[in-house]
Amino acid sequence: MADQVKIGIIGGSGLYKMEALKDVEEVQVETPFGSPSDALIVGTLEGTRVAFLARHGRNHTYMPSELPFRANIYAMKSLGVEYLISASAVGSLKAEAKPLDMVIPDQFIDRTKNRVSTFFGEGIVGHIAFGDPICRNLATVLSEAIESLNLPDVTLHRGGTYVCMEGPAFSTKAESNLYRSWGATIIGMTNLPEAKLAREAEIAYATLALVTDYDCWHPDHDSVTVEMVIGNLQKNAVNAQRVILETVRRLSHNPPPSDAHSALKYAIITPLDKAPVATKEKLSLLLKKYL
Ligand SMILES: CSC[C@H]1O[C@H](OP(=O)(O)O)[C@H](O)[C@@H]1O
Ligand SMILES: Nc1ncnc2[nH]cnc12
């Protein structure tokens, strides 16, 4: 079993490994919810052990709808992760958020249709608070890390709404314009289920959204393609990794409090002494504080 690690990183499209990780160990984690997308790569960044997971697998073999979100979050929890940073490619729904910019969103709109985004069920019912789906304090650490680096040609947008769509096809223009009329800032296919499950697992979660395109609404820009996403992500991958490094450095020196760390305190409605033993066992990693 690997050492306990408090900081986890999930890398999305175009960010399949962390170059700066040292003393790397590949950890295959099995969970009651199946296998994660890939082995967790535990290594040292800035003197701190962290766990990295390629969200779609290192060869990008999982579609957003196929991602084993529960296994991914459970695996992070089983290593001891308390803070989870998600690095994700997104389309921009606002002119001012340009390709290569970074956005730290603070809200989501759910347009997924086909995702399991809870650990509950099978006799144990829980309803987490999700009004503020991103950990504000972790988002602040991330934003301050970005600002401290003064990255050339990168504008940071603090706050904003991430529309999470099902995919895998990109949006129609009508959809893209609808989301713009709702005031949304960026669009992707992955972060909402992850954020919900992280909250249920009492892990603080924040998103580093890397803008790769203007989706399909912008009259002066071509509609999004995979080539565009990966091309821009590769241009920005060095910056993204610098941001993650600086965030890890700050988090390890000064880990902030997070409401997420006690998210289940008032969430579980089923009396646990009346709950099915098999489900209590399945969820014991998440529930043990409350059993
Ligand atoms: C390759 S374009 C669409 C793909 O990119 C984003 O992935 P991630 O959030 O893992 O960076 C988007 O959500 C889609 O999965
Ligand atoms: N325009 C877009 N729509 C959905 N997911 C994306 N990921 C990157 N760009 C995207």
UniProtKB/TrEMBL annotation:
Enzyme Commission number(s) of this protein: 2.4.2.28
PANTHER family listed in its UniProt record: S-METHYL-5'-THIOADENOSINE PHOSPHORYLASE
UniProt keyword list: Glycosyltransferase, Purine salvage, Transferase
GO CC terms: cytosol
Family listed: Belongs to the PNP/MTAP phosphorylase family. MTAP subfamily.
GO BP annotations listed: L-methionine salvage from methylthioadenosine; purine ribonucleoside salvage
Keyword Transferase carried by entry: yes
UniProt domain Nucleoside phosphorylase: residue ranges: 6-248
Site entry: Important for substrate specificity: 171, 226
Binding site for phosphate: 13, 55-56, 88-89, 190
Entry keyword annotation includes Transferase: yes
InterPro entries in alphabetical order: MTAP, Nucleoside_phosphorylase_d, Nucleoside_phosphorylase_sf, Purine_phosphorylase-2_CS
Annotated positions binding substrate: 189, 213-215
Reported function: Catalyzes the reversible phosphorylation of S-methyl-5'-thioadenosine (MTA) to adenine and 5-methylthioribose-1-phosphate. Involved in the breakdown of MTA, a major by-product of polyamine biosynthesis. Responsible for the first step in the methionine salvage pathway after MTA has been generated from S-adenosylmethionine. Has broad substrate specificity with 6-aminopurine nucleosides as preferred substrates.
GO molecular function, one term: S-methyl-5-thioadenosine phosphorylase activity
Root EC class: transferase
Subunit structure comment from the entry: Homohexamer. Dimer of a homotrimer.
Catalytic activity: S-methyl-5'-thioadenosine + phosphate = 5-(methylsulfanyl)-alpha-D-ribose 1-phosphate + adenine
Entry superkingdom: Bacteria
Pathway: Amino-acid biosynthesis; L-methionine biosynthesis via salvage pathway; S-methyl-5-thio-alpha-D-ribose 1-phosphate from S-methyl-5'-thioadenosine (phosphorylase route): step 1/1
Name used for this protein in its record: S-methyl-5'-thioadenosine phosphorylase
